[in-house]
Amino acid sequence: MSGAKKRLLSGMQPSGNGRLHLGNYEGALKPWVQLQDQYEMYCFIADWHAFTTLAGTDVSIADQSRQVALDYLSAGLDPEKCAIFRQSDVPQHAELAILLGMLTPVSWLERVPTYKEKREHLENYEGGGEVGASYGLLGYPVLQAADILIYRAHAVPVGKDQAAHLELSRAIARRFNFLYNTEYFPEPDAVISEVTGVLPGLDADENGKLRKMSKSYHNAIYLSDTPDQVAERLKNAFTTPSKIRKTDAGIPEGCAVCLLRKLYDPAEYNVQWEECRNGTRGCVQSKRETTEVINTFLEPLRTKRAEYENDPAELDRILARAAEKARATAEETLRGVRQIMKIV
Question: How far apart are CA 72 and CA 68, in angstroms?
Fold first, then answer.
């Protein structure tokens, strides 16, 4: 690829309700939009990965995948600059995962922290009565490595606390190259997001500490929320527990509403914070003003999303064109792999 842009691979699962929230935007989508001019970019929707937690349910992965695609586009990913496609539309991901799985030690997979955590929380399989992890859950990192290596990607955007997750993909690339005495797969570098901290959710844990914004905690503001939905979510958001009356002193550093105001209104948030802290402002006013700020931020995203929601055929064309490009690149990679492994 001499003289060409380096390749970057990114993706998200269509989990939960399929819709992405402000935490996803700040931690992933916003950096991706900034990177799409610098790289040959592939942004996929990891619908196969979603089955590690949704297999056997009646959830429509197809519908949720479309929601993710709409959020990608509304956030500013440009289909002329990056390929937006569904993982399942590129079967080459699966073939490479099978081949890489033959080379990956089970011990590597069993040491993955997320595998250990999910295995410990598994419930009895319905009808089976046995507790255990699926092959898909154990092999998740191999498919993840295939997602990256099938494009021979040079870079993967990750948050500051996620760089270690990429190391197994790098190790699998090194193992393939070592076993076959080749330099076929580049070891993908982590492109570290400059997001400072974790976006707070709208609630707190049993110790009164704010939790991160997450679908699983049901404490998120979604990119596709209507103005009324945003208002309702912030109406019930966590503030300083001891600030019962307007004149009570608040602690803005531990208040979900104040922290969101600081992020989305950096020029004016200090007035709200100081008045909260010295007891001259009530939480109702803070929630009302923060609602206005966030709705102003989300309005362009809602408008962009509506364009594609009202033209589903165009969304289908975007996904189809990108999948065609992705398949061509992936098949080129696989031809080389088959030759190196002497399958052909």
Answer: 6
Asked whether residue 82 carries a pLDDT value surpassing 70, the answer given is yes
Query: Do residue 150 and residue 84 come from a single domain?
Result: yes
Domain assignment present for residue 262? The answer is yes
Instruction: Identify whether residues 62 and 177 lie together within a single domain.
Output: yes
Domain that holds residue 217: 200-303
Is residue 223 a contact partner of residue 19, using CB atoms and an 8 Å limit? yes
What pLDDT score does 202 carry?
A: 97
Q: How far is CA 288 from CA 238, 285, 315, in A?
A: 14, 5, 35
Q: Is residue 2 part of a domain?
A: no
Please name every residue paired with 267 in a beta bridge, in sequence order, or none if there are none.
Answer: none
Q: How many CB atoms lie within 10 A of CB 338?
A: 13
Nearest CA to 25 among 193, 142, 137? 193
Is the distance from CB of 6 to CB of 155 less than 8 angstroms? yes
- DSSP H helices in the chain: 22-24, 30-35, 47-54, 61-75, 92-101, 106-110, 113-120, 135-138, 140-149, 163-179, 227-235, 256-264, 269-277, 283-309, 312-340
Quick check: 292 pLDDT over 70? yes
Task: Give the per-residue pLDDT at 120.
Answer: 62
CATH number, position 109: 3.40.50.620
Q: From residue 248, give the alpha-carbon distance in Å to each of 208, 242, 264, 281, 282.
A: 18, 7, 25, 9, 8
